[in-house]
Task: structure prediction
Amino acid sequence: MPATAPGAVLLSGIVGSTAYGLAHAGSDIDRLGLFAAPTEGFHGLHHPAESQVTTAPDRTLHEAAKWCRLALSCNPTATELVWLPEDLYEVRTPLGDELMAIRRSFLSARAVRNAYLGYATQQFRKLLTRDTTEATTRARAAKHARHLVRLLEQAVHLHETGHNLVRLPDPGRVRELGERIADEPAVAERLLATANERLDRPGALPDRPDERPAEAWLHRVRAAHYTPAATPAP
Result:
């Protein structure tokens, strides 16, 4: 583990465009992970930092409890960490594998709708502000459009199957749609409307997540990373 790590890294992998199958030659490699801070660090006035973000390499690490809170809200970026293709994991530990085993308990229909549609709508608003007559800004608009399509496809797949489709089955189609939407934003409006409609139907997810497995897992994490203070000799 690197010297700059804030605690014991339990799970880490390559996320973002590489994971989705949308990376190109100039794409950054984004890494995401979660760590366990020493349990005794929570006993004082000031708790350990909940996240650490670095560049070169691009890496975000969330403390275990923060990651759980993000995952229970179905934050798309945090959630994908426990659904990555096997070849993209760089750190796996027994506690990390335990977390992957309870990944479905974090999901809920309401949170998937709010989080994924919310982020997709943000991408739509961003692409509307881009001047697509200029090459650089048009490229950015196409990027926003690709992520919009990806978020909507993941949201619908999650809702209907209970499984997070991180690696897109047809990334070429998503790229083509991104280019088309950059020139014709109305296409994105239709995609948003269709996704809304499908998410309104009964699906595979409960209305609320089950917090009990996450709570029990965090207790195991805290027990495993607690070092009692030495008792002074009499």
Observations:
- The chain has a mean pLDDT of 93.
- The first strand starts at residue 8 and ends at 15.
- The radius of gyration is 20 Å.
- The first helix runs from residue 17 to 20.
